[in-house]
Amino acid sequence: MTAQILDGRAQSAAILDRVEREVAEFVAAHGRVPVLATVLVGDDPASRTYVRMKANRCAKVGMQSRRLELDASISTETLIEAIRELSADPEVDGILLQHPVPDQIDERAAFEAIAPSKDVDGVTRTSFAMMAFDEGGFRSATPGGIMALIDAYDIPLAGKHAVVVGRSPILGKPVGMLLLARNATVTYCHSRTADLAGHVARADVVVAAVGRPALIKGDWIKPGAVVVDAGYADNQGDVDYEPAAERASYITPVPGGVGPMTIAVLIDQTMQAARARESARAGDLTPAGTPKR
């Protein structure tokens, strides 16, 4: 068996093409361009690259990207103040705090300074709760991208056993909740899980999200399973790709799988946020100021 590639580049391009049309319609209807504000703390080369990529995608669809760069030595209080100013800025539709942030920063406190109606990266507690209860709101961008990629290939999830390896609040935990909402049976695994190989071997769907190169071995994969590798491109992913691809039915490459989908969802949700602001002006507002799906 040779797995079919889950092509994140092709599917993200389709999303961005749609958003480009929606932006043009929005500008014609409302006389303004949607704005995504990105906040970068410090000069980490990888983070700077990611922010630049997001700005480029904004430009491609006709959105405006506003970049705020802050010194690596700033305090949590200074960062929170800057984010609150963006939250209150009537010209800003979405806010992205590029993570990780320097060690002295309380990242969770900084995330919570983002107004839920502008949390297009889906990192606040409000966004997580609304997603978990299926009450609209914004999905965490990478989990949202994973679900969009699975849906693009019409992969059924109901009744399937999904194993999520990783439990971060912006990737592992939310993707498990999204899979659960689609009637999959979800098992979370992590650094203290006993017999990780055994859990993975029983999975119909494996989502690897730990940032450890080749942690998931190819011979762990159940024949015919769907393998989604959300690991970093810099370390070539969390899954030992070649042997896993020989056993899986579908698999994401790294790079070119989940990464492009993350950015596409971020841009798409910025468009949703802009529309929600205009709906608010017309008095048609959902509980957290975000559109129902």
Automatic annotation (TrEMBL):
Gene3D superfamilies: Leucine Dehydrogenase, chain A, domain 1, NAD(P)-binding Rossmann-like Domain. GO terms for cellular component: cytosol. CDD domains: NAD_bind_m-THF_DH_Cyclohyd. InterPro entries: Aminoacid_DH-like_N_sf, NAD(P)-bd_dom_sf, THF_DH/CycHdrlase, THF_DH/CycHdrlase_cat_dom, THF_DH/CycHdrlase_CS, THF_DH/CycHdrlase_NAD-bd_dom. It comes from the Bacteria. Pathway: One-carbon metabolism; tetrahydrofolate interconversion. GO terms for biological process: L-histidine biosynthetic process; methionine biosynthetic process; purine nucleotide biosynthetic process; tetrahydrofolate interconversion. Keywords: Amino-acid biosynthesis, Histidine biosynthesis, Hydrolase, Methionine biosynthesis, Multifunctional enzyme, NADP, One-carbon metabolism, Oxidoreductase, Purine biosynthesis. Residues 6-121 form the Tetrahydrofolate dehydrogenase/cyclohydrolase catalytic domain. Residues 140-276 form the Tetrahydrofolate dehydrogenase/cyclohydrolase NAD(P)-binding domain. Its EC number is 1.5.1.5, 3.5.4.9. It catalyses: (6R)-5,10-methylene-5,6,7,8-tetrahydrofolate + NADP(+) = (6R)-5,10-methenyltetrahydrofolate + NADPH; (6R)-5,10-methenyltetrahydrofolate + H2O = (6R)-10-formyltetrahydrofolate + H(+). GO terms for molecular function: methenyltetrahydrofolate cyclohydrolase activity; methylenetetrahydrofolate dehydrogenase (NADP+) activity. NADP(+) binds at G166, R167, S168. Belongs to the tetrahydrofolate dehydrogenase/cyclohydrolase family. Catalyzes the oxidation of 5,10-methylenetetrahydrofolate to 5,10-methenyltetrahydrofolate and then the hydrolysis of 5,10-methenyltetrahydrofolate to 10-formyltetrahydrofolate. Homodimer. This is Bifunctional protein FolD. The lineage of its organism: Bacteria, Bacillati, Actinomycetota, Actinomycetes, Frankiales. The gene is folD.
